[in-house]
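pasting for ref. prot 1 ->
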Amino acid sequence: MNTQQMRKDSVEQAKHSNILEGLITSKAYDDDAEHYAVGEISATQLVELTRARFGLS
């Protein structure tokens, strides 16, 4: 399994976990997560974007 596939799997597992907890991710987060999955941004950048969205930067 290559890095991109591992990233996509991680994103899908996280989304599924959220759904099981009754949480729904925003379109903005889903877009950022896709950028992470295809290798355009790092995990650190994904966290930074998410935190900034909620004023936690």
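and prot 2 ->
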Amino acid sequence: MRKIVHIDMDAFYASVEQRDDPSLRGRPVVVAWRGQRSVVCAASYEARTFGVRSAMPAARAERLCPDAVFVPPDFTRYRTVSRQVREILLRHTDLVEPLSLDEAYLDVTETKTMQPSATATAKAIRASIREELALTASAGVAPNKFLAKIASDWRKPDGIFVIRPEDVAAFLLPLPVSRIHGVGKVMDGKLAALGIRTCGDLANVAVADLEQRFGRYGRRLSELAHGIDRGEVKPDRPTMSISAEDTFEHDVPLDALEARIRELAAKVWSATRKTERVGRTVVLKLKTREFRILTRSFTPSTPPKSERELADIAASLRGHVDLPPTTLYRLVGVGLGNFRDADAVPQPELFA
């Protein structure tokens, strides 16, 4: 049985800003550029009490919290701090799988530091982050990645939560199914229509019935509802693509999609700020009323350099859809793929 730790830095970008500028401590800090097209990269816990959240339009954040201090993001500095956190994690195990700049999985079944338990390892990591970087992190300890990620969110900020193998059922079964990764509003609604509201309800449904309704994801849902996750911690897995999609309550025509495409592009762009790699290919995904899936993509000569450029390209890809204008769509998605290390991306000639 594995011993997995999930480390999640608390309000990472905002906490770095508050650490480096004492005048921001205790104040509602929003890491974002101002403007109608900007989105929130991070919000301090003081700002979160007003309902401000990551990926929210900056204009809405300003309405929710008029006294917020807006700080433009400094991703170079955040990446530097992220590397310092990574160095602390690697002292304990080489099995570290970063998910973004501010969170990572660790397999501590065996460690370099000979800590007596996974819980002791998590405590030592959190103490080092506090002492060396003057930042806080929350930790989840569990037998697998799925449960460890849920646990790290359980006592945020600056907390630790442990799910022991013998306690998995008692912890998991009462939880709402929305706590399962991949169960968004649409899937939650489908499960609600079947009377499934908790992981316990889901665990009581036959796997065959779930597979019949939801395909291979139905089996995955059943396994997670039972606390089963066979995923291994994979060190240094590079980001290959980032995407966001939305299923509409009512099917809509192609020419009504631009606003939603731009909203999804904002989410994708915000997510890309958490990786050191650079995406080159913009993808537009569509699903028709008849469940036909279409994708259109474009790779510009240089990677998109802003949220607006990403959104403009994604919106323009509608012009490459050759279905009749009367076609209705139930889903739209925006993605950025073909990621490369930043120093491997060719730069434009100065005098082209």
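Residues 347-352 have pLDDT under 50 and may be disordered.
The longest strand covers residues 242-253.
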